[in-house]
Design goal:
The chain has helices at about 15-25, 30-40, 75, 80-85, 100-105, 115-135, 150-165, 180-190, 235-240, 255-265, 275-280, and strands at about 45-50, 55-60, 65-70, 90-95, 110-115, 140-145, 170-175, 180, 195-200, 220, 225-230. The protein is of the alpha/beta class. The protein has a single domain (about 15-280), classed as Alpha/Beta hydrolase fold, catalytic domain (Rossmann fold), CATH 3.40.50.1820.
């Protein structure tokens, strides 16, 4: 049975489960992924893969979906340690280079995570060309989604596509980390007011990252958070409180980074997309 998307309902349970399915398909190799989009959504799909960034663009006569691949296993998520903890504050930047002008439209003082910006920069141009071609063929609602790192890329992609006059219908993320500072997130919230659904499993530590400070984290989240499960991350708050006496002026540095990352890895099952899928049902 082909999944139906409900255009006028933001955060509708059917839409949230549908976009979660698209995220699951994004993790599959090309043959399986394209077959999955055909069977589940009645869509033809293409995989775009450049270096370590991957996304599917799927379409039929009614809708277009961009689904970004993320990271979810203990082995692959360990590669994000530097981005989310060790070098997090050094990576919060005013972007330059290929995408700097479009991201600077977020306004004075807006900063984005350099790692996520570099990842979307690798794939943005071919994605834009494909989506633009699809819109020229037939104007349809564009849905953008991603899990984990893919959720961060989905938000950046939406912003960049809008700067190039591609209308975005709705954005769904699952377990996404923070992508920038408060001014950057405020700009995204204004641009996509009422169009973003950011799903967070209460036991998942990844949406609390990046961050290096127990006092004031310069990173922030976009709206609207939709909490899943019964635990609003109290276990992570308790853990951070337990190491507070070891922090230097409130900063998580040195061996504390390894302690926090061990906590993340120990709780990585809560970050898995299968876990999110189960909580949405």
């Amino acid at each position: 049975m082909v999944i139906e998307l409900i255009e006028d309902a933001v955060g509708d349970p059917k839409n949230s489960r549908a976009m979660c399915m698209a995220c699951q398909l994004a993790y599959l190799p090309e043959n399986e992924g394209t077959d999955g989009f055909r069977r589940h959504f009645g869509m033809s799909a293409k995989l775009f893969s450049i270096d370590n960034t991957q996304a599917y663009v799927a379409e039929n006569d009614d809708h277009i979906i961009i689904a970004f691949r993320g990271t979810e296993s203990p082995t692959s998520i360990d590669g994000l340690k530097d981005w989310l903890l060790t070098d997090a504050m050094n990576l919060l930047i005013v972007p330059e280079g290929r995408l700097g002008h479009d991201l600077a439209a977020a306004g004075a003082g807006a900063k984005f995570h350099k790692g996520f910006v570099n990842a979307i920069a690798e794939i943005h141009e071919p994605l834009f060309q494909e989506v633009e071609a699809q819109f020229k063929r037939l104007d349809r609602p564009l849905w953008i989604t991603g899990h984990s790192l893919g959720g961060a890329l989905a938000l950046l992609a939406a912003w960049l596509l809008k700067r190039r006059f591609i209308a975005v219908h709705q954005i769904y993320t699952y377990g996404a980390p923070m992508i920038g500072n408060q001014r950057a997130c405020d700009a995204i919230d204004r641009e996509f007011a009422g169009q973003i659904s950011r799903y967070v499993n209460g036991k998942d530590p990844v949406p609390r990252l990046p961050g290096l400070s127990l006092v004031a984290n310069e990173f922030a989240h976009v709206q609207t958070e939709r909490l899943l499960g019964s635990d609003p991350m109290t276990s992570l708050a308790q853990f951070l409180g337990s190491i507070g006496s070891k922090a230097i002026q409130g900063l998580i540095v040195g061996s504390l980074i390894d302690e926090v990352w061990k906590y993340v890895i120990d709780h990585v099952s809560a970050h898995s997309l299968d876990n999110y899928d189960g909580l949405l049902k």
